[in-house]
Specification:
The complex is a heterodimer of chains A (about 325) and B (about 100). Chain A has about 325 residues and is mainly alpha-helical. Chain A contains 15 helices and 7 strands. In chain A, helix 4 packs parallel to helix 6. Chain B has a domain of about 55 residues: Alpha-Beta Plaits (2-Layer Sandwich). Chain B contains 3 helices and 4 strands; from the N terminus they run βαββαβα. Classes of the chains: A mainly alpha (about 325), B alpha+beta (about 100).
Chain lengths: ~325, ~100
C-alpha cells in the first residue's frame, strides 16, 4: 500500500510549477489505485480523487494528521472537474478501482467520499449497484476536507459553492500565456517579413523598426487579453469576454501607441490599435474555457458575435499595416 | 456565484417537476446553488446561474433534469475546432484540459 506524504517536497513543487506553466502539463499523472495517508484503519474514510498529480497533491497536502484511504481513479491524468465533464471520471471507473483494490476486504464500512466537482461524471446513486459502496459528495475544495471530517461529514453552503477569486485566476495565467508561444512566434515572423514591404520594394530597416513596434503591440495584446482580462475580470464592464478583452486592448493600445512607442504614420497607429484590440479580445474570449461559471451555450453565443469582430479587426489591421508605407 | 454572472437566458437547463421525486441530489451537487427544494420537489431557483456542467442531470436518479448535452469545456479554440470539424464531417481532438 503506497503511503502518500501530506507535505509537498521540492520535487512536488517543481512539478506543480511545470504543470502550471505548461511545460509538462499533460504528463503529470500517478498510477490509479488505493493509497493511504497516516495510519488508516478499516474504519477510516475513503476519499476518491483523480490521477492528475495536481489534484492528488491538492488533496493530500490537506490531510496532515488525518488517517484516511485515498482511492485514485484513472482519469487519464486529467483533473477532477474536467475529467467528470468528459465522463472519464465516472461511477463505472470508480467501481472498477474499488474492485481492483479489493476495498471491501480492506475497510469495514461501505462509503466513498467523492469530490463534489466529480458530480458531472459520477452518478453517485449508481455506485452502490456497481460495487456495493455508497457514494457521498464531500466539499468542492480539498481545503475543506478537514472541517468536513471533523464535523461528522457535514457540508455547508459555502463548501458547496464554487469561487473564482483573484488568486484562483492568477494561477491560471501562466498556462494561458505559455500555450501561445508557437502561434506568437509564427505571427511575429510573418509580421517582421511583411513590415519591410514598401514603395522601394523591400526595406530591411523598415522591416526591423516597424516589426519591433508591431511585436511590442503583440506582447501588449497578450498582456491585455491573457493576463489583465482574467485578473480584472469582475471589474471589466459587460458579461461577454470578447468585449472585456476588446476594452482592455483598446485602453492598453492607447497607452502604448500614445506614450510608449508612437508609430510613424496614422495608418500604422490604426493598424496596431486594431491588432491589439482584436488579439486581446480573442485571448480574453478563450479564457472562458478556464472559468468555473461560463456555460457552453453562452460561450458559443458570444463567439458568434466576437469572432466576426475579431476577424474583421485583424483583417483591417493587416490592411492598414500593409498600406501604410504607400500612403504614409 | 454572486460576484460572477454570465449571459442571462442562455444556459439550457430544464426540470420536469412531475418526474421529480424530491431526493435533493441536484441541490447537493450544483456548484452554483441553482436548485432548491420546495414542496418536496426540486425547483430551479437561479436559472441564469447555470453553467451547464451537468452534475444535476448525471445525479438525478429519475432523469428529470435536462442540461445542454454538447461536449466541451467552453474553450473557444475547442469550439472553433468543433465547428470546423462539423463542416468537414470529422471528429475533433480534445482541447487537452
Amino acid at each position: 500500500m503506497p503511503r502518500a506524504a501530506t507535505r509537498l517536497d521540492v520535487r512536488d513543487r517543481v512539478g506543480t510549477l511545470r504543470a502550471r506553466t505548461g511545460i509538462a502539463r499533460h504528463r503529470y499523472r500517478l498510477n490509479p489505485g488505493l493509497y493511504c495517508v497516516g495510519e488508516p484503519s478499516p474504519a477510516s474514510p475513503v476519499l476518491v480523487t483523480a490521477n492528475y498529480k495536481l489534484s492528488f497533491d491538492a488533496l493530500r497536502k490537506e490531510l496532515s494528521g488525518i488517517d484516511a484511504w485515498i482511492l485514485v481513479a484513472d482519469t487519464r491524468g486529467i483533473n477532477v472537474w474536467c475529467a467528470a465533464g468528459k465522463k472519464t471520471f465516472s461511477a463505472g471507473e470508480i467501481a472498477f478501482q474499488v474492485n481492483r483494490a479489493r476495498l471491501a476486504e480492506i475497510v469495514a464500512h461501505r462509503q466513498l467520499i467523492l469530490p463534489q466537482l466529480a458530480a458531472p461524471g459520477v452518478a453517485a446513486h449508481e455506485l452502490h449497484k456497481k460495487c456495493g459502496f455508497r457514494g457521498v459528495f464531500g466539499p468542492i475544495r480539498a481545503a475543506d476536507i478537514r472541517g468536513y471530517l471533523a464535523r461528522g461529514e457535514e457540508v455547508d453552503e459555502r463548501m458547496r459553492t464554487i469561487t473564482f477569486s483573484f488568486a484562483e485566476r492568477l494561477v491560471l495565467v501562466p498556462v494561458e500565456v505559455a500555450l501561445l508561444w508557437k502561434r506568437v512566434a509564427s505571427v511575429t515572423l510573418a509580421v517582421f517579413a511583411l513590415s519591410g514591404l514598401g514603395p522601394g520594394l523591400y526595406s530591411i530597416s523598415a522591416a526591423f523598426h516597424r516589426g519591433m513596434t508591431a511585436t511590442g503591440a503583440t506582447v501588449l495584446a497578450i498582456l491585455a487579453g491573457a493576463v489583465a482580462s482574467p485578473l480584472l475580470l469582475p471589474w471589466l464592464p459587460g458579461r461577454q469576454f470578447w468585449g472585456k478583452g476588446l476594452l482592455a486592448g483598446a485602453l492598453a493600445g492607447i497607452v502604448y501607441l500614445g506614450l510608449v512607442a508612437p508609430p510613424g504614420t496614422l495608418f500604422d497607429a490604426l493598424g496596431l490599435w486594431l491588432w491589439i484590440m482584436a488579439l486581446s479580445s480573442h485571448l480574453a474570449m478563450n479564457f472562458t474555457g478556464a472559468t468555473p461559471f461560463t456555460s457552453l451555450s453562452g460561450v458559443e453565443k458570444e463567439m458568434r458575435r466576437g469572432l466576426p469582430v475579431q476577424c474583421l479587426g485583424g483583417f483591417l489591421a493587416l490592411m492598414f499595416w500593409l498600406l501604410s508605407p504607400f500612403v504614409g | 456565484m454572486k460576484e460572477f454572472r454570465y449571459l442571462d437566458n442562455t444556459a439550457i437547463l430544464r426540470l420536469n417537476r412531475d418526474a421529480c421525486i424530491g431526493c435533493g441530489n441536484c441541490a447537493t451537487v450544483c456548484p452554483h446553488r441553482v436548485f432548491a427544494l420546495a414542496d418536496k420537489k426540486a425547483a430551479i431557483n437561479d436559472p441564469n446561474g447555470c453553467m451547464e456542467c451537468g452534475a444535476c442531470a448525471t445525479n438525478c436518479p429519475v432523469g428529470a433534469i435536462f442540461v445542454n448535452p454538447d461536449e466541451g469545456c467552453g474553450c473557444a479554440h475547442y469550439i472553433i475546432q468543433s465547428w470546423i470539424a462539423r463542416i468537414r464531417g470529422k471528429n475533433v481532438n480534445t482541447c487537452g484540459c
